Amino acid sequence: MEKELKKKLSALNPDLKKQLEEMMKKMHISISILYEAATKDEKTGLYNSRFFNNVLEMEIEKVQRGKQKLSLMAIDIDFFKKVNDLYGHIKADELLMRLAKVIQGQIRKYDIAARFGGEEFFILLPETPLSRTSKLAERLRKKIKSDAVLAKHSITISIGVTEFKTKDTKKSFLSRVDKALYSAKKQGRDRFISLG
Q1: Which of 14, 127, 170, 180 is least surrounded by Cβ atoms within 10 Å, i.e. has the fewest?
Q2: Does 61 qualify as catalytic in the annotation?
Q3: What is the pLDDT of residues 143-154, one digit of tens each?
Q4: pTM of the predicted model as reported, rounded to 2 decimal places
């Protein structure tokens, strides 16, 4: 298709050809901007909940057809309302962006990290067993706790971790990771809890 288009463009008047190429370049940039706006959270640059849910459904279908593993992490920033109240929304947004950057630095390119509302995040880990996800959760927890910017504001996280089971549905998978997160918060925060 692209070769055919280039062939047709080469037959055009050079001025018209240049105008069409510029117009197509602008269209491509516009489409890229629209895609970013539709799939990414504007504050953190992580994926948004709509995109995450679509990918989650596709990954669950893959697991149900094959034998691969699929794990999920739910993350909540501990006592983030206090940070908001103490430092204000601008500083809180800066800390959210920093936390997102730390998350992105710890996951693989094909893992899906998404922001779900205020201070809640999910990370979908395709082809990953629970044991590896648990190691990542602990590494991520420590990394966030030791990050100079986040540590200055005493930012810690609670994490729930689970793995997709044969009889799971999307709802049961999400419910179990939510229970694991709730359990981490109930047991004192700044920890991860794994529910297999």
Answers
A1: 14
A2: no
A3: 999 999 999 999
A4: 0.82
